[in-house]
TrEMBL record:
Protein source organism: Gossypium raimondii (Peruvian cotton)
Superkingdom to which the source organism belongs: Eukaryota
GO biological process, one term: sphingoid catabolic process
Ranges that cross the membrane: 42-60, 67-88
Key words of the record: Membrane, Transmembrane, Transmembrane helix
Protein name from the UniProt record: Uncharacterized protein
Length: 105
C-alpha cells in the first residue's frame, strides 16, 4: 500500500487515469507526447524531468513506482529517438499542435 495523502501512488494513478479517459486525449497523448522529452539521448531538460519523475514514483511506492519509473525512462528513450528523427523545430511544432487540439472545447 502507498502512503496516504500526496504520496499515495494509487490515488495519483486514479486521478491520472480519470483525467486521461477522453478518447481524443488518449490519441493525442499516444501520438504527440513523445517530442516533449526532446533530442536523442542527451542530458537535457527532458532527461532531468524524467529522472525527477522516476524518483517521484519510487518515493510514492517502491514496487509499483519502480515499474512506473522504468516506463518513464522507456518513454524518454523512445521520445528521444523520435524527436531526433523529426528534428528539434518540428518536434516542438508537433508538441504545440497537440496542445492546441487537446484544449479545444
Amino acid at each position: 500500500m502507498g502512503k496516504p495523502g500526496l504520496l499515495d501512488l494509487e490515488n495519483h494513478f486514479t486521478f491520472y487515469g480519470a483525467y486521461h479517459s477522453n478518447p481524443i486525449n488518449i490519441l493525442i497523448h499516444t501520438l504527440f507526447v513523445w517530442p516533449i522529452f526532446n533530442h536523442a539521448l542527451v542530458l537535457n531538460y527532458g532527461y532531468a524531468f524524467s529522472i525527477f519523475l522516476c524518483l517521484f514514483y519510487v518515493v510514492l511506492d517502491k514496487k509499483d513506482g519502480s515499474l512506473a519509473a522504468l516506463l518513464c525512462l522507456a518513454c524518454w528513450v523512445g521520445a528521444s529517438f523520435i524527436a531526433a528523427k523529426l528534428g528539434y523545430s518540428l518536434a516542438w511544432k508537433v508538441n504545440f499542435c497537440s496542445f492546441v487540439v487537446k484544449y479545444q472545447p
